[in-house]
Amino acid sequence: MMKKIRGFSLILCACSVLAGCNKSSVDVKEKAGEEIVSMEEAEYSFPEKYEKTSDSGKVKFNCELEVPENIKGQAISTVDVKGLYRCDREKAWTIFGEGKEIIEKPETPVDEGRAPEDYYLFANDESLDINEGITYGSSNSKYYSYIGVTNPDNQAVFEETEVSFKSGEECITELQKIIDELGYHSEDFIFACYPLNFQTMKNLEEQYLQEGLLTEEKRKESWSQEDDAYSIYGYQKYEDIPIFHEMMSIARVMAYDTPDNAPIQAIYSTRGIETLNISGVYEFEKGKQQVTLKPFEDIAAVVEEKFENILNDADYEVTRAKFYERVYLDEGQKYKADPIWYFEVVENNISKSVTLINAETGKEIFLQ
After folding, report:
1. Residue 29 pLDDT more than 70?
2. Could you report the per-residue pLDDT of 310-363, keeping only the tens digit for each?
3. Domain coverage including residue 313
4. In a domain, 181, yes or no
5. Could you tell me which residues come within 8 angstroms of residue 228 by beta carbon, excluding any fewer than 6 positions away?
6. Rounded CA separation 119/42 (Å)
7. Which of 13, 120, 161, 177 has the greatest CB tally within 10 Å of its CB?
């Protein structure tokens, strides 16, 4: 009998030891799992600033990375482009055309799959063009256009001036109301503005006349405080990532992140909207897959190699790096979207160029 009891006790002890071993094994696995998760969370994040000089000294990086806070540097969801967003045509007519005398309405051919285009020239020298987007110009809009108020080369001059009729924020708010009425969603855009002081515009007009960039018949009869305005522009965003629209990929001169390339451009004066241009706005949908992003250091290495391989004595400084979602038409003429890095590179402290790198593959996107 004692032998049986001793044998049973031994079995119990063995089971207890085995149970203890299994529990320790589970604990180890759980701790290991926690460490893996922790490592994944801290795996990689884009640097806030990137400073580096190539071994030869030819290429220098000195830029703060412009990246949305929700992009941590690991992976993002793919983006599906459903197509171009179309404005509310009836609202566009109500706001900008109703009650005005039409003196010209030419027939405009429409490409297959695109919205019809209706262009109107009104008796008071206003114009309205409605298609997927909208282009409106008041009777005074041409004078702002003649002197290039949206030209990036003139922006710095205007930013040093002031206007007093309203704040820039107030004018942006008024514009947002109109954009919402037209069927867009103003919260889908990143807006900015700068003042257009009438005295500065008058001086610029005189300069253009002296340089032969403007003819006398295009001179404005007079400039006054009534012409004070703001140049307002907005870039579309999706999931807080700014959109690099398709027109920006067509040619090198169109690739710059400047006010005159924004899909929303407006001039808002003391009289209200002088010009409004909305085009290249897309309807998006979150994709079902994930895109793994390359570390920024790998992307920067591609840029460095590109300029190191240029056989000249020039120096290159990368002054800007911005994360974008690029929209383009593929070979089948279907809209696609890829994450990219946008770089501004200055040669010999004089000329500036743009380089685009696919954020997933690390390959350059070549511009014409």
Report:
1. no
2. 999 999 999 999 999 999 999 888 999 999 999 999 999 999 999 999 999 999
3. 49-80+289-365
4. yes
5. 163, 164, 165, 195, 196, 197, 198, 269, 270
6. 55
7. 120
